[in-house]
Amino acid sequence: MKITLFALNSSFTHTNLAVRYIAYSLKQQSINADIAEFCLKDKHENILFDLYEKRSDIYGFSVYIWNRTEMLEFARELKMLLPCSKIIFGGPEVSFEDEGFFKKYPFVDSIISGEGEDAFCEFCNNPESYKHKCIKGSANKESFKNSPILYDIYPAKGDILYYESSRGCPHRCSYCLSSLTSGVYAKSAEKTLSDLLEFEKLQSKPRIIKFIDRTFNFDLERAKRIWRELCKDDYTLNYHFEICADKLDEEAFEILAKMPKGKIQLEAGIQSTNPETFKAINRTTDNGRAIENLKRIKSFANIHIHADLIAALPYEDIASLKRSFDETIGCCDKLQLGFLKMLRGSHIRLNAEAHGYRYTHTPPYTVIENKYIDFKGMYSLFKMADVIDRIYSSERFEYTCEYVLGHAQSPFEFFEGFTNTLDKDIERISQNDLRLMLFDYLSKAFADSEALQRLALDTLIWENKNPPALFRCHYTAHGKESDLDIFTFNFDCEHRYYINRTKHRVIIK
């Protein structure tokens, strides 16, 4: 029996952990499987031909909101070319389908919902008995707790490798599919640290090890044990953790303060600061404490912090979102203004009418209107989110944004106002043009010239050649010291800024 596991990632930098788990589970049963891993930017016909050439008996498709449409098309075409092959879908995007799915898509033979390792093995042992049936996967906790990193067995090309040290989530947020499972189970701290050392041995080292745990610090003592060891020189990579920031204690702060700069990244889902919204989505985080904790970590200046907000949550109108944004932006290096997705199977989707939700009925099911924000308002937020990504979260305007956060009456209104001045999507604006547009907006928004000087500083850091002439009146050049340009800015006469353009950094003396 020949088996192919098909992954279609959203970007070439990403990898698919699920197909590796399935392949390893099959290997434990003495069944070999190939992995065919592509990204959405690969040519459709190249992907289809690769799948066709394998002529496998069984094809397992890993289906998510970002690839559902493409996966259905590949399955339709592959079934036409290889009608005797079995095609089985799995993944969060199909885990809440029923047998009506097969009437609409008869070229798919079966679906696995939930955890698929054991269920896929079961299917392969007797595929004919599962024709047009949904197979409920179940957790094999001991198998997971002892599983290896998998990339040594099944290599990946991406520079971001995913690692899972726990499954499940302690929260029950109504918009998240994790709310439909109960409990959390995890690898021990010792096993996790041992696994992380295995990443160090890979022939091609990744740039980031991204933990996909829903809440890494659900067990704070375990989290602290792992963080404490990561401070050591044995661990050289960059590690990304999604945490619940209000659950940190003094010992955690002490450990994080000692972490070597750039070794870890923290991501925290703030989502909203509106208590009524939190009650409606069944979220219990203390966001006031979470924001203060993140600000404290940010003051250490050694850890990159990513915070998330979600637009279109219940009871959050523009005024409420503005408060959430203004309260959150100062606690992070990157702020993602995301938009509520009405995921299949989620509680919030089942009760969509209660809040007047209207959303795209093709993936990713993004909300486009509700009782609190109409489509015009939502469209403006879509554009503003892109501006925030380009200006604040890119960190190419670090010194400018530092001034804005300290002097603007409302950072939300600042970004909203700048967005409204643009006559086209920000993705179509060159970097130089964007700086000039921002220069013009800053000169009108603030009475003094410090914001313009800071924009000039950001420009000097990121421009490899001479900066635009408009910025040259806002600094004094003093020559060079090795590869560092030396500039003095009027807003801070006590320091000189030594700018290493090749490394995009500033040394202040």
Give the terminus-to-terminus CA distance: 67 Å
What structural class results from the helix and strand content?
alpha/beta
Spans where pLDDT lies below 50 across 5 or more residues: none
Strand order across the largest sheet: 2-1-3-4-5-6
Report helical residue fraction: 25-40%
Please count the beta strands (DSSP E, at least 2 residues each).
20
Tertiary shape: globular
- Strand-residue proportion: 15-25%
Biggest β-sheet description: 6 strands, parallel
3D architecture notes:
There is one protein chain. By secondary structure, the protein is of the alpha/beta class. It is 37% helix and 19% strand. It contains 18 helices and 20 strands. Strands 2-1-3-4-5-6 form a 6-stranded parallel β-sheet, sandwiched between helices. Strands 7-10-11-12-13-14 form a 6-stranded parallel β-sheet. The longest helix is centred in the C-terminal third of the chain and has 19 residues, at 375-393. The model has no long low-confidence stretch (mean pLDDT 92).
